[in-house]
Amino acid sequence: MEEIKPIFWDDEKGIIILDQRALPREEKYLTLKNIEEVAEAIRNLAIRGAPAIGIAAAMGVALGFKMSSPKNKKEAENIFQHLCRIITQSRPTARNLFWAIERMKEIFGQSLDRGIEETKRSLISAAKSLLEEDLRVNRAIGENGQILIPQECAILTHCNAGALATGGYGTAIGVIRAAWEAGKKIRVLVDETRPVLQGMRLTAWELQKLAIPVVIITDSMAGWFMAQGKIDLVLCGADRVARNGDTANKIGTYSLAILARAHRIPFYIAAPISTIDVETKDGRGIEIEERPEEEVVEIGGKRYAPPGVRAANPAFDITPAHLIDAIITERGILYPPFEDALNKLC
User: What's 7-140's CATH class?
Assistant: First the structure.
C-alpha cells in the first residue's frame, strides 16, 4: 500500500501536512507558509501526535528562519529565539515538541558562525533529517515490540499512535503493523477516543488502509470487552514519559490501564526515546493541556449539551508507572522498575 505521509517539506511551497481534522471524510493537504500557520495547525489539531508535532515544530522554525532577513548575528539570534517561542507556546504536553526545538537550537548554535545563509540551510537539513529519523525509529519500535504480540490475539488501542501521529508508520500502531507483517493473526479494537474521536476517525482509517481487522468500540465499552475475554492486551502511545515511567497520553489511557490491571491483561506503551523526559521526576511534573470546551459539548459544530452548562476538557491523563508492564522503544523493551533503565537509555 502507499504509505501515509502526514507531513513533508517542499522547498518551493513550504510545509505540507495532511489535515487530520478532515479525516476520514476527505484526504486534504494544507500548505503552511509561515511559522504562525504551523503553530496554529498544531493548536487546532490539523497535525497531532507527539512525534509529528516535533517534526512540525522543527520544520516551522526552519521555515521561519528561512523567510527572515537578519542583518547580523545578534539580529539572527533574536529572530531565532522568537520563532522558538512561537512554536513552544502552541501545545504544552508533548515532549517531542520541546525535544525538537532543543535539537534545532543546537544546530543554530553550531552553524551561526558560518553565516546566515549556511544557518538557514543547516536548519532546513536538520528538520528534514528529523522526519527521516522518525521513520527509522518507528520501524525499530515496531520490530522490537512485535515480539510481545502473541501469534493470535485481540489488541485494544486508544487514540491514534499510527502514521498520522508520527513521520509515518507509527509507534503503537507500528508495533501492530510489524506483528501483522510477521504473519500474526491479530484483531484490533479501537476506542472511539472522545472528545474528538481520534481512534474512530484516524486509527480505524489507518488500519482499514492496512487491511488489518479493526472494530470500533466506545470508550465506555472497554471494561466489558475485557471481562468477556475479548481483549488480550492494551497497547498505547505516549506524549511524554517521566523519569520514573509515569506516562502522559490521551485522556482515557489511565482508565484503560486500571481496567487492564483488574483483568490481568498486559498494558504496554510504545514511544520513541524523544518522548522520554528524564528532567521530569514523575507524572506530577507534566503539564496537562486544557483544550476548548467546545470539543466536548459540540459534535460537527452542533452543540448537544444544554446551553450554559460548562465542560472540562483535559487533553491528557497520567498513567502511573506501576500500571505499565513494558515501555517499547527503538532501543529495546523496558520493564519495571523503569527509572534506572530510562536514565541509562537517555
Answer: mainly alpha
